[in-house]
Amino acid sequence: MSWVSLLLTAWSSRAPSLLIVVMVSRDVGLRVGLEGVQTSMCSRWGSRVEEFNQGQDGDVVIGGLFNLHYRPPVIDQEFIKPPFYNPCTGLQVETLKAAYAMEFAVEEINRNPLILPGVKLNHRILDDCSLYPWISYLASCPCLSDRHRFPNFFRTIPSDVYQAKTMARLALLFNWTWIGAIVENNDYGLLAIQAFQEEIKGSGVCLEFVEAVITETIEEDAKRAATTVQHSTARVILIFCWYTDVRELFIQLAKRNVTDRQFLASEAWSTSSDLLQNVATLDVARGVLGVAIRSAKIPGFKTTLSLCNGRETLEGVQNIFTDTAHLRVAYNTYLAVYAAGHALHSLLSCPDKDSSPRDNSSTCSSPYNITHKELLEHLNKVNFTTPNGEEFFFQGADIPAAYDLVNWKTSPDGSLKLVLIGRVDGLELHLNKTSIQWTTGSSQVPISVCSESCPPGTRRANRKGEPVCCFDCIPCTEGEVSNETGSYQCRRCPFEFWSNPAHTACIPRKVDFLSFNETMGIVLATGAVSGVVVTTAVFVIFLCYHNTPVVRANNSELSFLLLLSLKLCFLCALVFIGRPSVWSCRLQQAAFGISFVLCVSCLQVKTIVVLAAFRSARPGAGGLMKWFGPGQQRGSVCFFTSIQVIICTIWLSLSPPIPHRDLGFQGSKVNLECAMSSVLGFAVVLGYIGFLACLCLLLAFLARKLPDNFNEAKFITFSMLIFCAVWVAFVPAYISSPGKYSVAVEIFAILASSYGLLLCIFAPKCFIILLRPERNTKKQLIGR
Question: What angle do CA 516, 522, 524 make, to 5 degrees?
Fold first, then answer.
């Protein structure tokens, strides 16, 4: 910012004095020409400059060198001769007010008996366009905090580092991640934007562009910067420049009709009434949000500014000079004088005469023997409470950071006014967000992003070769969620959970099993029940016609037992449907294994009976059937079945199937199934059924050419071919089917093989019994 400072030096007069030299190298505050303000200002204000130059004597004189007038920039830029500077012109009202604040502070200290008792403090103020100082009320360059380079420097304004950090925090607060910047091409602008970039590092905020401007070439620079702003996608623009340069920039933006940008103002121009009152740039400047030098009141100061010659009236006068409600530069000057006064007080105070000799070893310092070294030592230790009740002390060269947050609002008459909307203490923001009027004229916070924040259910994916603020939103994969806006990655759901359809939350997985309520379960259950009904119907038919030759042929007892086993096969299919439990898992495999062995055993014994009957008809084989009579047939069935019972008992006793929650492949579903704890047990049960089926098929195949009317072997052959084909196809289908579909495959195999046996063996007999009764005679059965 402007370099405005206090220089401690000797003053050549009858008494040693303290000179506060103040220099401004650029415009500070508002500049108003002397001729233009005479009509609205007290006539005495301008003439006071000459009175300041005369000064007064005292025990200690504090001298102030203020930039009361403005020095225009260099005109000649051809570099062929020494540059020519215009003379200083134009009274700077804010600086004049600061000079008055110095005078007021000196007089206030003299009236205070607790500060410098017995020592008269006076002042002398001189006007100059520039010098480099030691104690400042406006020098905010971060470089001045370096005590190695500037060991004797103090200031009553915070370093620009803090306002840069404040702006960064405002950007984060309002989620502005895509920002443009225009800075002064000097230490003020470059160091400030550097501090801003350090503060936003790793926070997801990016700078789309940084344009540097120079006061000497501001017209061309402002055109270039305005064009950049016009074509940028950033809606928030940060500006670290002098107010005169901002004025030229706003003029260029107004020419381009760029009125939709939100500007963040540094304290160099955030309170500029010149910009606030510029009609040509009202549409551009509306809604400016800025960091300003903290404001305060100086009790009694307004009375000092109102001293006139008695003929003027200040009623109705609206002028920044008489506005003491929000003193900024003047208050910093006020604090600087008080800091000097308290340092002098500490230096000139005599030790307590009641203290011990050791503590009273030093002597009183004299106002006429003050050295710079002594005064600087006491300035480093200054700690006092201002008349406003504010605690003041130096932290190295600096004071604790404190700022005002201001907003440029539109008044009912269409003009802009400066409104205080918050403050900054250290790095704590105290902001009334609801009172802000944005550049759009509404209370809706502007959006300035390169890419819209990724909604919940997606994650950010950076675009190659572009800033981190520019990204794409990728939907989370199945089983992953993101429940926050702008997530960088999706989170995997816990094992028992799955992502909802929007991928915003993990929900418990749905338990999935083959139930009676779903279509597949209903179809299979209907098939099983239908099989039971048909088998029962056949059983009733055979029972009603049990004395007929067709029923009695080939051992009717085995036929009834076969029908009973087929009914059990159909019924066991129903055990596979429904929520698996400990007992259902054991029962379904045992019922399946025993029912089918009983069924195949009956068929096998039937086939053996056919073979034995026709073998006994041969000469010398008449006694064969007596070795395979009804008792032996029943015993064979029981023997074959008991083996399966033993296998199932051992299997279910040692390692039975148990309910298991399978999470591996069903995604949002948990497949509840009966897991085979011992695959070997299931393989033995299935293998034994397959062994009996193959043996039965072989025997039936051998008996297929025996006389037709007595021979069931042909139908048994067909039925066992279907049975074997079904169960051979079952094995790979069962292994490859996921979840409940493996259960459905097993049920289908049970139903298909059961229907195959029922139809192949009993359908021809039922056809004769019901539709061809003339063929249901002994003559028809024994004849060829």
Answer: 110
Distance (Å, rounded) from C-alpha 573 to C-alpha 14? 122
pTM exceeds 0.70 for this model: no
Which residues constitute the domain of residue 339? 5-73+80-155+298-309+317-349+364-399
Q: Does 268 fall in a domain? A: no
Helix axis angle, 740-771 to 582-616, nearest 10°: 40
Q: Worst-scoring range by mean pLDDT, 120-129, 130-139, 270-279, 382-391? A: 130-139
Is residue 214 within 8 A of residue 184, CB to CB? The reply is yes
294 by Cβ neighbours in 10 Å (0-12 / 13-18 / 19+) ranks as buried
pLDDT digits (tens, 9 = 90+) for 409-463: 999 888 999 999 999 998 789 999 999 999 987 888 999 999 988 999 999 998 8
Do 135 and 153 contact (CB within 8 A), yes or no? yes
Task: For residue 359, count other CB atoms closer than 10 A to its CB.
Answer: 10
Helices (H), ranges, 32-178: 34-37, 43-54, 93-111, 160-173
3-class SS at 425? strand
Q: 389: how many CB neighbours lie within 10 A of its CB?
A: 6
Q: How many helices and strands in the chain, by DSSP H and E?
A: 21, 27
Task: Name the nearest CA neighbour of 614 among 624, 629, 603.
Answer: 624
- Give how many domains the chain has, as a whole number: 3
